[in-house]
Design goal:
Length: 183
């Protein structure tokens, strides 16, 4: 195979792989009713006057339907509570003097359906991104100075690559949908 074609296919493969990685990161943020430390990723607290991620000043431990936040310094308890409330996550933190406990309420059926729609939208965005990578690769192949037969074979290889990544996206979505809809 022509070295230029190999480079184009590899670039398309890398772009599609990044699309899958982005999808997985986005789907982690869609909660499925279980307590997960990632839920608190957006929480920032004032630590000696500097906005600091919660994970950098405490241990965050999930336990079924609760998340326990154990600060490394006790005076931070009030700041942690304030940070969780300010993050607008819909959680009501409870301070027991040692740690902050967050109850993660179970999802209603309507909310589960909304979350599945959100996951589906992320999935569709990823498919568009993968198809754009295919289109870019095909355009690069058409610009190259190689025979039509080699161009056709390269386009077939890129289409197979695209089909494989689209299948991966569908599998990831089905897994997340099952996770969200499972009580």
């Amino acid at each position: 195979m022509n070295e230029e074609i190999g480079f184009i296919i590899e670039a398309a493969n890398e772009s599609m792989r990044f699309s899958i990685e982005h999808l997985e990161k986005e789907l982690v943020n869609i909660r499925a009713g279980k307590a997960n430390p990632v839920m608190l990723k957006a929480v920032m607290i004032e630590y000696y006057g500097v906005p600091t991620p919660l994970s950098q000043v405490s241990n965050i431990t999930p336990d079924g339907r609760t998340i326990t936040v154990q600060p490394w310094e006790k005076p931070l308890l009030a700041e942690i509570e304030k940070g969780i409330l300010n993050a607008n996550l819909g959680f009501n933190p409870m301070n027991n003097g040692e740690s902050v406990i967050i109850n993660v309420p179970p999802l209603t059926q309507e909310r589960r359906i909304e979350l599945v729609k959100l996951a589906k939208a992320e999935t569709e965005n990823t498919k568009v991104s993968i198809r754009n990578a295919r289109k870019d690769a095909n355009n690069e192949i058409k610009k190259s100075d190689i025979s039509k037969d080699i161009q056709k074979n390269a386009e077939i290889d890129i289409q197979e690559l695209t089909d494989n990544y689209i299948k991966k996206v569908d599998d990831i979505f089905l897994s997340k949908e099952k996770d969200i809809l499972t009580l």
